Input
Amino acid sequence: MPPAPPVANVLLQRRALLAAAGVSLVLAVSLVIPLIAHCSMGDDYGERCLPSHEVGAIAWLALMLWALWVGAAVSQRWLPSSPRAHRWGLAVQIAGLTAAVMVTVPLIIGLTDDAFSLYSWQVKATLAAGACLAVDYYQRGQRGEAAAETLRRNEQGLAAQLDAARAALLQAQVEPHFLFNTLAHLRRLAATDPAEARAMLADLRRYLAAALPELRQSETPLVRELDLVRAFLALHQRRIGPERLALSFDVAPGLDDIVVPSTCLLTLAENAIKHGIAPRVEGGEIRVSAGPDPEQPGLLRLEVADTGAGMTAATGSGTGLATLRARLAAVHGEAARLSLHLNQPSGLIARVSLPWH
Output
């Protein structure tokens, strides 16, 4: 964020100068009102009660007040910033403007007998102090607002960094158990069926090639997420047997470049394998789908449906789904959600809905 312009520069802009002129005129009129009131009551002020004299007094007084304001605004930039030195600098500023007015005003309007009287010094010092303190007060207010805005922006930036770090931490908690199971199965296959072991090793290589880059990113195109899930499910299908795990994919066209939270479908697929297919001896089917939400067109619906064991006491309470919920909340807030639904005739549907436009 660019720094705020100095207060003196702001006060010397055309709009600020016109506003100061208007305020100076109002103050000048208010100071001359007692003289006008005495004249209207018939007091004998001689030539002081002449209308031309009153108008001239208002004009010169307004000009003096405006000049004091401009002088205070110009000289404000040279005041020291430390509190103790600032107080002394403010006193010097007031004294300097007072002396400048005491010298210049009599020269402009003509010297009078009481031009340098003690009362004249007091009046001009009071006016100079008012102008200097007003400018100083304005500057303090501007600095306070700028500091508050900086703190607010810093707080937002830190909150965003915290959310990103939290999302990265949660994302890193993807369970690697299936890797150990896969390696153990590969070891058994290497001794009993080398050809099948080589095929499974190729599937594992494809999975790792898709998975490792995604684990370092918070978001990914949907097409890469689907590649990751396909590789993951292909490994499990080969491990537990195609007769126990059937796979199908239903993805609406034109969604390849839609950005989704990385490993979100992978988490749902892991949950379907662990809690849906694995507990059943006969296994089941897993169907992965992606497309516009038919109930809310502004949302993208990602689903992993299985025909496995269905809803159990442990369903939805695992670390994977809790992690995914936290990641969705950190990135999209209440606009995204994860929900679980019973599948028919058996099994579970895990659904993620999130903004995509």
